[in-house]
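cron nightly-structures :: item 1 of 1
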Amino acid sequence: MVIGVAIDVHSQLGPGLLENVYKQVLYHKLIKAGIEVEMEKNMPIHIDDLYLDLGYKIDLLVENKLVLELKSVKEITNIHVAQTLNYLKMGKFQLGLILNFNVYQLKTGIRRVILTDGPRAF
């Protein structure tokens, strides 16, 4: 359902806009579809007894389990995957999607990221 809504957003807006435009519209359409979603969920870092709230934010968190990291870039890189994996670790989530809206067809701009014993990205 989430990917279908994202594809709808992309087909309406097309590539070439700022990431924030896609984030706002996708958030609105997910809410309208009755899907629980949080925008810019704060992700503090906990190391030992240190708590750092430095402004790291998940673009969209769907039903408190699916991390959506939105991009509008030439291509998804290993750094984007690492960023998403860090959000999964910080929030103790297992599944993330990187959605790159700066492509001709959104299905070619989707990368699934799974946190397991050894992180994997597809």
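cron nightly-structures :: done
The chain has one domain: 2-121.
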